[in-house]
Amino acid sequence: MIKLYILDIWCLIHSLMPLRDSARSACVSGTFLRSWRCRPILTFNEETLGLKKKEGQKSDIAKAFASRVDCILKNHLGTCVKILEIVILDYYKVNACHLNSWLKSAIRPGIEEVTILLPAKQIPEYIFPCSMFVDGCGNSIRYLHLSYCTLRPTVEFDHLRSLTKLHLFEVLITGDELGCLISSSFSLEELELRCCWELFCLKIPFWLERFSCLRVDECNKLQVIESTAPNLSTVEFFGEPVQLMFGESSQVKNLMLEYSFEPNAVNYAITKLPSIAPHLETLILYSTCERVNTPIVADKFLHLKHLDIYIGDDDDEPVAFVYDYLSLVAFFDASPALESFTLCVDPDDMKHDSVLGDTSSIRQIPRHSHDRLKKVQVNGFFSAKSMFELICHIIETATSLESLMLDCIYGEEMGDGTARCSASKFGKCRRRSKRMVLEAHKALSVINKYIVGRIPSAVKLSVGKPCSRCHAIDVDLL
């Protein structure tokens, strides 16, 4: 009994030691070796194996990596492995047979996490062997992360019943094959797909009742995302526009949407999303550019509380369209429960008419009271007339407004108001174009001349000024 207790102590100690040190200690005695064989975490990369990359020694490192992994797995029972992580770099030149032998040694019943990160050149040569999951080896896996390989599960695949998280990065797999992989994963909660270029249609079935989070990133052939999973609540999408189908009982509450090189994401969101995701509470939009103003719509985001909009322009062509920021009021009118609004704009990308020197023709639109809006933040506030009109509208109609933050420098952390670089861990502000710095000073002038005096006493105004050191410039403002 005492011996068993001591062995448990050694197992605990070894589980906390770095892999390299733990393996070395197993050479000291039989007791240490038995405890080493119970080590539950095996992470194979250059750092854990004590390999340091030196110029001209890539072949030596590759041989040492393979040799050490072979030795460790040979002396490890494998049945006690809970977490396996293998990171293979391009110059290791590990062939499929060698890798499969490692997987066969380590993936046994009881394993819970498997991460296999391969070099880009492996795709599509390496076909991950789904047979590794048979005979109960896959049914205990809770987390599976694969990269740069091909995955071909068949209709009969039924070996990942405990899987809660599946992450695939640059994996060749079709929509039907992905369906085969997850159809019996009744515990699945999270699916992340990045650069999976064989996906045309992604379907999440209704019987995955625990499924709650979907992330899709640059699967550029994807055309349709359809989910009938009853508890899907968070969706993050980046890529070419796709058709979103969440079903009549959609419970999606958090949505992040970013189109790559496709304009008008903001326009799409307000015209289409109220019917697609009627229960949204948080909406984050990234728009590379807006070529149409935001329209007034009849449909409502009845539950939307937090709205973040990021607008830039990645087009190399000259920007001819002047976006009307005041049109964003349509979101406020469509979102009666809205509590916070963040707008981020890169002034370098945007063409605009400055409000400086001309406030005589400021537009006023019908004033609907936004009585729940408490926090407004504009990152990249600049002197555009329509942006000034938007802020004035918010000040006049947001009766519950508590804080308004206007930052004149896009994408820079606010400092103490005098030296922004004091807030940077690098000790200085990031380099900005002369145009952006000049615009920041103009924006500050707009705030001081036209906005400060309009702020109600109950509202806290925070202003992100240009850095007194990094953004100093001689300007002649009207």
Automatic annotation (TrEMBL):
Stated name of the protein: At1g61320/AtMIF1 LRR domain-containing protein
Gene3D superfamilies in alphabetical order: Ribonuclease Inhibitor (3.80.10.10)
Residue span, At1g61320/AtMIF1 LRR domain: 72-468
Organism: Urochloa decumbens
Taxonomic path: Eukaryota, Viridiplantae, Streptophyta, Embryophyta, Tracheophyta
Pfam family, one: LRR_At1g61320_AtMIF1
InterPro entries xref list: At1g61320/At1g61330-like (IPR053772), LRR_At1g61320_AtMIF1 (IPR055357), LRR_dom_sf (IPR032675)
